[in-house]
Inverse folding.
């Protein structure tokens, strides 16, 4: 790099696995961008991907990413747009191979370098780590991971921006990671392009805040907006957000002209408090950001300037996301119509529970919700009046799959031998599903060995 750019434009193009398929193409075609940031991973996603890899060793990554890259190839090849994504999931190498195949079919694209960041997957190392005294204690219960070791599906440490920056330094135009922090995907290109030092805590914190604001895609540009949702224009064509980062650590949040949605102090603020935790200590592998230092300024229509951010050194730990098998569940539903819809649903619930007791079926938990009456707000819901319809939703969980299977056979009979006016019953018996539970832990940074490969 011979010149530090005045502004680096990082465009969010995916906020989760399942987000809008055409967002990447719209972002590169809607105006100038330097980087596409695609965030695919959530905690539950890692366990899903691990199950896929168990069935097929060539799977285990976010397959939507392949189509996303294919849709933006002209911008990558002709304009030099770079892509950073955590689409690698639990199999970054296989993801890179799929992308390389796509690149090989397009003129000039076979010269594009792919950076693969790995080292986050701790599943093959769990026994080694436990034997060495790294207990990976549950952050909520303080229990050692040894208690569920035999049921673990996936275990991934959250990597920071450093290996992504290394891949960019080595010429990668597409960088694929496994489980990195969501914020690192945006912070890395800002850190790389502006040459921020490893201990430039305020600027690094600014990069983290920029990443946090756009990591959920259009959630900061009008989607899922709590207070302004009635007035958000043209959500059908919502514009995904763009960060314009400057060398001093200040940045602006905006979107392409002519797109729907809105970028305002309100929409940005709502995203800032999303999954925030302690506002004074937003901990990442790179830096601890102080959200109380953030200042927002209206720069005009669909532009918000962010500045004043403070940061301090990170801890010596990395967060580890572990998923493990925890029994089985099934959920069944019936819809009861007016009159007395809620009363009918309540009676059906009592009848179902009595029949399960008579059969001697034991469950760790039975949960009943009356959708339309109290499912969202529970006991805070005012006593409902005569509702036009209520959905009875009953879920059970147990270590005993046979008990859950039997539960699924007791829902349908209520259609004829329970309260009247059932409607909307379709789809057959409820499906028995394996429960994947979440185990948050910490591990010493010193035992995590991120690697960067250029392919």
């Amino acid at each position: 790099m011979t010149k530090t750019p005045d502004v680096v434009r990082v465009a969010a193009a995916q906020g989760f696995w399942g987000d809008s398929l055409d967002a990447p193409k719209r972002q590169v075609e809607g105006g100038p961008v330097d980087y596409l940031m695609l965030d695919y991973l959530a905690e539950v996603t890692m366990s899903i991907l691990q199950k896929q890899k168990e069935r097929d060793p060539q799977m285990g990554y976010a397959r939507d990413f392949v189509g996303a890259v294919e849709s933006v190839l002209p911008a990558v090849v002709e304009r030099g747009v770079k892509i950073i994504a955590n689409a690698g999931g639990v199999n970054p190498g296989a993801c890179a191979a799929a992308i390389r195949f796509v690149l090989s079919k397009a003129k000039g694209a076979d010269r594009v370098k792919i950076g693969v960041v790995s080292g986050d997957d701790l599943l093959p190392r769990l026994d080694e780590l436990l034997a060495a005294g790294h207990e990976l204690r549950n952050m909520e219960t303080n229990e050692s991971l040894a208690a569920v070791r035999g049921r673990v599906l996936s275990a991934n440490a959250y990597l920071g921006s450093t290996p992504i920056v290394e891949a960019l330094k080595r010429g990668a135009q597409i960088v694929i990671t496994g489980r990195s922090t969501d914020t690192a995907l945006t912070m890395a290109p800002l850190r790389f392009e502006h040459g921020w030092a490893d201990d430039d805590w305020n600027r690094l914190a600014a990069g983290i805040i920029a990443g946090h604001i756009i990591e959920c895609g259009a959630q900061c540009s009008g989607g899922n907006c709590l207070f302004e949702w009635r007035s958000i224009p043209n959500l059908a064509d919502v514009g995904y957000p763009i960060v314009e980062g400057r060398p001093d650590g200040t940045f602006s949040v905006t979107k392409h002209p002519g797109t729907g949605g809105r970028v305002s102090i309100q929409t940005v603020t709502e995203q800032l408090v999303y999954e925030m935790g302690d506002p004074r200590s937003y901990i990442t592998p790179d830096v601890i950001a102080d959200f109380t230092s953030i200042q927002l300024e209206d720069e005009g229509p669909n532009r918000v300037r962010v500045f004043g951010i403070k940061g301090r050194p990170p801890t010596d730990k990395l967060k580890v996301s572990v998923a493990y098998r925890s029994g089985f569940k099934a959920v069944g539903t019936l819809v009861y119509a007016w009159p007395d819809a809620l009363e009918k649903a309540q009676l059906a619930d009592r009848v179902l529970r009595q029949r399960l007791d008579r059969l001697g079926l034991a469950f760790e938990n039975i949960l009943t919700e009356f959708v339309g009456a109290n499912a969202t707000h529970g006991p805070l819901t005012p006593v409902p009046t005569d509702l036009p319809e209520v959905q009875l939703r009953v879920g059970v969980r147990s270590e005993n799959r046979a008990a859950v299977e039997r539960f699924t056979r007791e829902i349908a009979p209520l259609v004829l031998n329970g309260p009247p006016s059932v409607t909307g019953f379709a789809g057959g018996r409820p499906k028995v599903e394996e429960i994947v539970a979440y185990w948050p832990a910490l591990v010493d940074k010193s035992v995590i060995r991120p690697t960067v490969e250029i392919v």
Observations:
- The chain is about 25% helix and 25% strand.
- The first strand starts at residue 8 and ends at 14.
- The two ends are 21 Å apart (CA to CA).
